[in-house]
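Can anyone check this?
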Amino acid sequence: MYTECRRICGCVLLFLLFGSCSAQIGHKCTFLSCRFARHAACDSDNVCRCKPDYPVQVSPLRCAKARRHLEVCSDNKECTVIDVNTYCSRTSSQSRCECHDDFIYNEETRHCEHLKLPPVAPDILLPMAVGVSVALSSMLCCFLALWRLCKRRRCQRLTYHEAPNARAAVPRIEDPR
């Protein structure tokens, strides 16, 4: 609470003296005006810049450290400075720098790398459709062949039953009288 009061009081004093409370990062400053930007300082060119240990500009009045994978963070910019494939995972308990979807952390390179999936197997739908078509056409051919054989036998039986058998028939001799 005391530091907040000191900031407000100092800001009021600077406002009265210079007409501005605090210089924003990247803007012209005086020695004291950049003091209220967190982790920033007025450089030799009188420009308010982030300190070397805090290279990430999170807002116009705040700089932060660059964060690595699984380090605690408060803004995406902290994570993307070191690795563009990371983001700050804004959870309710504790936000950390994590890899984007389809990326995985590589311990050797210490960066998130694109997840390389194994080559996709050829589509099985076309070979399966061809196999089913061949099986169905084979079954149809077999069915038609059996039907044809049965029909032929049935027709032959009908012709034997309809006409008397030549061997079984006894010739009749008619009397001319």
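Reply from J.R.: I decoded it. Helices lie at 2-18, 76-80, 125-162.
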